[in-house]
Design goal:
Layout: H1 5-13, H2 21-30, H3 43-50, E1 74-78, H4 86-95, E2 101-105, H5 107-111, E3 133-135, H6 142-157, E4 182-183, E5 188-189
Parallel strand pairs: 1-2, 2-3
Antiparallel strand pairs: 4-5
Helix pairs in contact: 2-6, 3-6
């Protein structure tokens, strides 16, 4: 049940802060996002720059990039995902703590970018794992990553704890692990995780 905003303001003037369990829970989640120390290509330089003093990612509670997926709850896919690397990305994602999030940073991570026609480049990491925020650009600037963090925080804030739209980790039917693709004779097998992405139907 939502608390009336005017009541919050009046109570706050008296030194009493009123909130709901959902707001408190989501505040804790959005204020302590721990990214994984993980970069794939040139977009990783922009990601690293975002942590420096000029941009200060610490304002979002994400100042320490964790060296292990078991200590992280967010993966920034920053750069080109080759088909040789895709299984490792999915494997690392499966080892991350829940609730976990993914930001696809740059054109390569989203769609393959300028290497889209290459036989060895994945046409978007969202074929295998769910992506929460996409950042276009080649490469996107640090300000774009900060904007993605704020977009992710807004998304977390709006999630209810029960019912439709609740986080994946609170949904008993949501998959805990995603299938890790393997190198087949001609391509990755499976070619995509059907529970996350299917080939769009184009009507001509």
């Amino acid at each position: 049940m939502a608390v009336d905003e005017q009541l919050k303001i009046e109570m706050g003037k008296q030194g009493v802060f009123v909130t709901t369990l959902q707001e408190l829970y989501n505040w804790g989640r959005r204020s302590s996002i721990w990214p994984m120390q993980f970069g794939l290509a040139c977009c990783a330089i922009e990601m690293i720059a975002t942590t420096m003093a000029r941009y200060d990612l610490a304002r979002f509670g994400a100042e320490v990039f964790r060296p292990s997926p078991r200590q992280a709850d967010m993966m920034i896919i920053s750069g080109t995902v080759t088909k040789k690397m895709a299984p490792q990305v999915v494997r690392l994602y499966n080892q991350m703590a829940e609730p976990r999030y993914v930001i696809a940073m740059g054109a390569c991570a989203i769609s393959g970018g300028p290497f889209k026609q290459g036989y060895n480049v994945l046409k978007g990491i969202d074929r295998y794992i769910p992506v929460d925020v996409h950042i276009p650009g080649c490469p996107p600037r640090p300000e774009a990553l900060l904007e993605a963090f704020m977009a992710l925080q807004k998304k977390i804030d709006a999630q209810p704890l029960t019912g439709e739209g609740r986080p994946r980790h609170l949904d008993a039917e949501a998959p805990g692990e995603f299938p890790v693709p393997e190198q087949g004779a001609h391509d990755l097998e499976p070619a995509a995780n059907k529970s996350v992405w299917t080939v769009p139907v184009v009507i001509r």
